[in-house]
Structures are given as C-alpha cells and as structure tokens.
C-alpha cells in the first residue's frame, strides 16, 4: 500500500540522470566562504579572527540564542577575511573567508562510543555542537526540533520523500549512506524510547526502499512507509497526514500531532556527529537542469562557491535563463555563482530559455484546478483575486498564511498566474496588518 494525502501534483520528475550515478566528491576550492547565517534563527558571531589558523571541523561561529546552530571550518587554513558577503537568500551575511592550505588538518569532535548509555539531553547536546540543521532545505536547527519534541511524540518520521523534480541527493544518500541513516534513526529512538520510527520513501525509489528495508529488518521499532509519488509529499504536514492520518492544525507544529520529522541526511548527520565525531562541513548537492552539461550529485564542502559545482558538472550548454538553489518549486533564484553552498543547499539547478513559462497577460479562466491541487485546502483563485486588489483583510479570512508556498497551484494554473509569488507578498502584508 502507498500512503498519500489530498491534493498535490505530478510534475515530470527529471531525476533519472542523477539518481543512477554514484555521488562524486568535489575537491575543496582554494578559498571557502562560510556565512554565519546558514539556519533559521539567530545568526552566529565569528569566534575566530583574521590571521587565525583553523582546522577542518573547528568551530568558527556560534551564538548563545536557543534557535541557532554553530558553524565549523570546512577546510584547514588561515582566516583571510571576515566580511559581509552575498548570501543565497539574496541578502548580505557576515562570512568567514578561509584560505585552504590543502592539508585538511582535522579538528573533529570526540566520537561517543558509549552513546547507548547517554541521556537524551546529552545526545542532543552533541547534535547542537555538530551544527546540525535540516538538510532538506529548511535548515531549522535540529537540536531545537529534538528538544521541543522530547516526551511529546510517539512517531519519528525519517523523510526520504524528496518530491521536488530534479533533486536526487537524498535518493543517492539512501543508497550510499544507508548505514549512517539507519544508525542516526537508532540514536533518535534512544532519545525517544516510547516512539516507533517510520522511514518514508516515495514509490519511485524502489532501490532505496529495498536498501533501507534490508538495513532495518532486524529492528522491530523501525518500518519503511512507501509513499505515493507526488508533490509535495515531502512537506511535513502532508507527510504526517499520509503516514499517520493525523492533521497538524493551522499554525501548529508536527509535535502537536505527536510526530517528529527529520530528513534522511539530517538523520545521517546525527550518526556522523555522535558515532564518528564529525560536524557538518560537507553535504551532497544535485547539480542539474536543462542548461547543465553533465548533471550529477556532488559531495562538496560547505562554503564552496556555486561556480565550482557548475564547472564540475561540465559547465553550461547554453546561457541559463534561471539559476535556482533548491528545487524548481520552492527553491531560491540565484543571481551570482559566487555565493557559497550552505548547509541547506540540496540542489543547484540551471534552466535554459525554452523552459520559461512566462506569458504576456496571465489570466484566470476559473477552471478550479488550483483549488483541487492545493494540499492545504485553500482557495488560491480567491486569494489571488483579493491580493491583487490589496484586500489583505479578505486574504487573511481565506487563511493565506497557511499557504506553504509549495507552488503546486502555480504549476497547475493554465492561465499562468503567478499565484505563489502573490501569496508570498500577501502573507507579509497580512502579518503587517495583524501587528498594527
Ligand atoms: S502555493 Fe499555497 S495556495 Fe498554492 S497550492 Fe501551495 S499551499 Fe496551496
Ligand atoms: S488554476 Fe489558474 S486559471 Fe484555474 S482557477 Fe486557479 S487561478 Fe484561475
């Protein structure tokens, strides 16, 4: 049986090229640019100064705020500069520039061989120290998620859905890092002794389902849940609804539905941090799209400028019209290839001009398809109507702030309306209005 939810869309997956090829390791560049903001929450402050020698894995940024995650050097070498730089979000961020000495002198955390005898609190402390954030793109600090769920959830969901087109980094990790993912899930089960664990994978990844099922066959607390392949199956609320039947109320969190959801690679990062003493300094990034010569999955150091990833993928076959960090549905447009890979970068996509769907005069033909596909059961057509008239009171009444900006309505709209973009702006206006 495949688990599913109401609504959603079926975009062309475009994953075959990258999901069949093994992950390649990209050598680190001569200089890494490590932003002090790579997570949701309070940015870190640099704890090194220009001229300091840092080792691979050494902490270089931290914050005393609860919602934050420390940041580590991804190469060894000298700190050349600490300055504001362009961030993938489009804003500026303080960053530490490290000149790579090519030696990879290690500064790992201590591996915790006796983790099975440790308390949930102590284990969560190691998750924090390793700087783990959501690897699926959201980059929420993992220790905060775990701490807020301890004692309140009965279901751990390890998210291997990876429903955005083009992206296959998690798929490859499920095949190549199976032991680390399952090991991380076991550590989580130690923190949540009353819970069971579902590893949720879409049906279009039968090899990953097989690999994970084999790795957990002796563990009665773990089970693979096969999901119907559709978008946005990997979104937390839809995933919880699919595999448990529980609804997360508007404005509430997964913990309110008794669930903790973590991405597969986030789970592997927990294993690497606790069992191997390795903080987050690398990640796997899918490089793909119609403008890319040789799409592939690359293991890269955090702080590597995007241009090196494009180079490693054979460069562009034509001038790209659009470059996106993340998936085509929810990713962030990029305007410079000098910005660095951050902890939440799961993909870098570049699209040729013939994929541009913009039309001169977008028009609603009242077909209702946006309503059918909206996984949040909203009324996009009316929200658009009121937002285009600056009537944010009505937008609020129609729950525009429950829109998770998944882009399903925009994808489906035959009138080519920029629905999601309009809702993003409307959400900000509604919040301003509520504050007033
Ligand atoms: S972008 Fe918002 S309104 Fe559109 S389908 Fe997704 S949740 Fe619904
Ligand atoms: S899908 Fe587009 S054209 Fe159809 S009702 Fe919704 S906004 Fe209008």
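^ Assign residues to that structure.
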């Amino acid at each position: 049986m495949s688990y599913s939810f109401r609504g959603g869309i079926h975009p062309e997956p475009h994953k075959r090229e990258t999901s069949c090829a093994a992950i390649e390791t990209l050598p680190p560049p001569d200089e890494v640019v490590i932003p002090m903001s790579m997570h949701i929450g309070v940015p870190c402050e640099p704890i090194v100064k220009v001229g300091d020698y840092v080792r691979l894995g050494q902490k270089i940024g931290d914050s005393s705020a609860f919602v934050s995650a420390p940041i580590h050097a991804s190469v060894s070498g000298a700190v050349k500069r600490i300055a504001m730089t362009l961030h993938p979000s489009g804003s500026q961020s303080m960053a530490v520039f490290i000149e790579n000495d090519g030696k990879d002198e290690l500064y790992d955390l201590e591996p915790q061989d006796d983790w099975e005898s440790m308390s949930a609190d102590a284990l969560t402390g190691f998750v924090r120290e390793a700087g783990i954030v959501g690897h699926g793109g959201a980059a929420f600090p993992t220790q905060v998620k775990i701490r807020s769920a301890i004692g309140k959830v009965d279901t751990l969901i390890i998210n291997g859905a990876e429903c955005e087109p083009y992206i296959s980094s998690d798929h490859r990790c499920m095949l190549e890092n199976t032991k680390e993912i399952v090991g991380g899930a076991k550590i989580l089960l130690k923190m949540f002794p009353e819970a069971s664990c579902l590893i949720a994978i879409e049906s279009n990844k039968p090899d990953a389902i097989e690999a994970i099922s084999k790795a957990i066959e002796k563990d009665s607390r773990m089970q693979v849940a096969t999901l119907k392949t559709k978008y946005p199956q990997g979104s937390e609320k839809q995933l919880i609804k699919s595999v448990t039947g529980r609804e997360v109320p508007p404005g509430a969190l997964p913990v309110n539905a008794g669930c903790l959801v973590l991405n597969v690679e986030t789970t592997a990062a927990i294993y690497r941090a606790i069992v191997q003493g390795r903080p987050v300094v690398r990640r796997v990034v899918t490089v793909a799209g119609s403008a890319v010569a040789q799409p592939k999955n690359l293991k890269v150091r955090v702080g590597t400028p995007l241009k090196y990833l494009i180079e490693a993928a054979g460069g562009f076959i034509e001038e790209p019209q659009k470059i996106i960090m993340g998936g085509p549905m929810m990713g962030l447009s990029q305007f410079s290839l000098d910005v660095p890979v951050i902890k939440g970068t799961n993909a870098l996509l570049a699209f040729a001009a013939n994929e541009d769907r913009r039309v001169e005069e977008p028009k609603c033909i009242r077909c209702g398809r946006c309503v059918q596909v909206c996984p949040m059961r909203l009324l996009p057509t009316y929200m658009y109507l009121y937002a285009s008239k600056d009537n944010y009171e009505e937008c609020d009444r129609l729950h525009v702030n429950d829109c998770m900006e998944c882009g399903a309505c925009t994808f489906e709209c035959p009138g080519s309306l920029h629905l999601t973009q309009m809702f993003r702006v409307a959400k900000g206006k509604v919040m301003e209005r509520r504050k007033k």
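The first helix runs from residue 16 to 19.
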